[in-house]
Specification:
It is a single chain. The protein has seven helices and 13 strands. About 25% of the residues lie in helices and about 25% in strands. A hairpin with a 2-residue loop joins strand 3 and strand 4. The chain is an alpha+beta fold and about 280 residues long. It has a seven-stranded mixed sheet, with helices on both faces. A six-stranded antiparallel sheet has the order 11-12-10-9-8-13.
Length: about 280
């Protein structure tokens, strides 16, 4: 389910007084310890030339809807929307964290950023004055993280897909990720990019012309990596942050015209059992 922005999107909090502005806000620490997640803090930049929290200094924030829940978002550099990791985990992702194995939850890598003092103050004002502590009693500080709204949407779609696949274990022609049973015997995972199905090249042991290959990264690779984990592919084959793939129409050239390619999802998987 994609996020839906409310019509009365922007709000101004007059109590969000600017105090001393922090620097860039990118975090150089390790991953959060409380809950296993994919929100990996980015290294801190050496130099900041733009006041990124100017919108928060003016008390500007908005709301948007995701999975039936309204989530506050703050702005950086006028238009970039960010969501508190703590709020997203609490309201959106907590049920997935309880349901899915950790190796599924951490399959994607999502860059997060430390909030500035001004942003922490605004988040506290949102929580106390606009949400009546709906987001918890703990105070927001500069140790809190935010992540881009688009990444939150993508992560929700990813976890929702994983939970449906691992519980229902079904595929259909509408699926953008899954498996193709080739020739009635070989099962190969795929992910769909701009309407084209791509399959990992390493399944075909060097038989594919490299000029036909496309390098998958980001969310496309995260979805394909999940399918590889379902099938029990060795970790060393999927440990990279990218994967060489081949389009289905190009792959067909290596098989006879009679070879079938049928949508499929395994009845059993090699990932830890779903609770």
């Amino acid at each position: 389910m994609a996020g839906k922005e409310s019509e009365a999107d922007d709000e101004l909090d007059p109590l969000a007084n600017p105090g001393q502005n922090n620097k860039d806000g990118k975090n150089s620490g390790t991953k959060r310890q409380a809950v296993p997640t994919s929100f990996s803090p980015r290294p801190q930049a050496k130099m900041v030339t733009v006041i990124q929290d100017e919108q928060s200094m003016m008390g500007r924030f908005g709301w948007y809807e995701l999975a039936g829940v309204f989530v506050p978002r703050i702005f950086r550099l006028k238009s970039d929307s960010f969501v508190s990791v703590r709020i997203a985990e609490r309201l959106i992702f907590s049920r997935f964290f309880q349901l899915l194995p950790n190796e599924v939850v951490i399959c994607p890598t999502i860059h997060s950023y430390r909030v500035t003092e001004v942003e922490a103050r605004l988040l506290n004002e949102i929580n106390t004055r606009h949400a009546e502590y709906f987001f918890g009693k703990d105070t927001f500080t500069t140790k809190d993280l935010v992540v881009k709204k688009d990444e939150v949407d993508q992560y929700y779609q990813f976890l929702d897909m994983c939970s449906r696949k691992m519980i229902l274990k079904k595929s259909s022609e509408k699926d953008r990720r899954g498996f193709l049973r080739i020739g009635g015997t070989s099962d190969v995972p795929y992910t769909e990019v701009e309407g084209i199905k791509y399959l990992p090249v390493f399944y075909f042991e060097g038989a594919i012309d490299q000029s036909m290959c496309l390098t998958l990264r980001g969310w496309d690779w995260a979805h394909l990596r999940f399918c590889c984990k379902v099938q029990g592919v060795k970790d060393e084959l999927i440990a990279s942050d990218c994967c060489e793939s081949v389009a289905l129409q190009d792959l067909r050239e290596y098989f006879s015209l009679e070879t079938t390619f049928v949508e499929y999802w395994p009845a059993k998987d090699y990932i830890s059992r779903v609770v």
